[in-house]
Amino acid sequence: MGKDHKKLQNNLEELRKSAGLTQQELSESAEVSRKSINAIENGIYVPST
User: HTH cro/C1-type domain: from which residue to which, for each copy (predicted)?
Assistant: First the structure.
């Protein structure tokens, strides 16, 4: 995993938690599955830009 991908992974979880959101709440707002949010935060999935 590249540096930028690791940064996204860490930032997403940090920002989500600082906003007081659960993975489910963020997924509903972003219109993606909770599993996608979880996979991004755990470095399993890297979304395309």
Answer: 12-48
Kindly tell me if the per-residue pLDDT of 7 is higher than 70. no
Cα–Cα distance between 28 and 16 in angstroms, integer? 13
CB atoms within 10 A of CB 26: 20
Instruction: Dihedral sign for Cα 10, 15, 17, 23, please.
Output: negative
Task: Kindly give the residue spans of alpha helices, DSSP state H, lying in 1-49.
Answer: 3-18, 23-30, 34-41
Q: What is the pTM of this model?
A: 0.76
